[in-house]
């Protein structure tokens, strides 16, 4: 697998990958109100810029794993 720039909206799993943590941690950050998320329907999406701000990194530096 290779690493690629993160898309503008991330799923919980993609956000966890970009933050190099578990999805459970990302869900906790959202539940605590520390990380903003959008809920279009049943999906939970996180803006790349919001995740970068939370992590204290530049949004362009966030990367996620992409399949083969």
Q: Tell me what portion of residues adopts beta-strand conformation.
A: 15-25%
Give helix and strand order, one letter per element, not per position: EEHHEHE
Main sheet? 2 strands, antiparallel
The assembly state of the depicted protein chains is: single chain
Major β-sheet strand ordering: 1-4
Q: Return the average pLDDT rounded to an integer.
A: 88
Query: What Rg, in angstroms, do the CA atoms define?
Result: 11 Å
- Which consecutive residue ranges, at least 5 long each, have pLDDT under 50? none
Count of folded domains = 1
The count of DSSP E runs of length 2 or more, i.e. the number of strands, is 4
Question: Can you tell me the overall shape?
Answer: globular
Helix content: 25-40%
In short:
This protein is 37% helix and 18% strand.
Task: Report what the structure shows.
There is one protein chain. The chain has 68 residues and is an alpha+beta fold. The protein has one domain (2-66). Helix content is 37%, strand content 18%. The protein contains 3 helices and 4 strands. It has helices at residues 12-19, 23-31, 48-55; strands at 2-5, 9-10, 46-47, 63-66. The strands form 2 sheets. Strands 1-4 form a two-stranded antiparallel ribbon. α1 packs across α2. The radius of gyration is 11 Å and the shape is globular.
What attributes characterize this protein structure?
3 helices; 18% strand; alpha+beta; 37% helix; two-stranded antiparallel sheet
Task: Spell out the blueprint of helices and strands.
Blueprint: E1 2-5, E2 9-10, H1 12-19, H2 23-31, E3 46-47, H3 48-55, E4 63-66
Antiparallel strand pairs: 1-4, 2-3
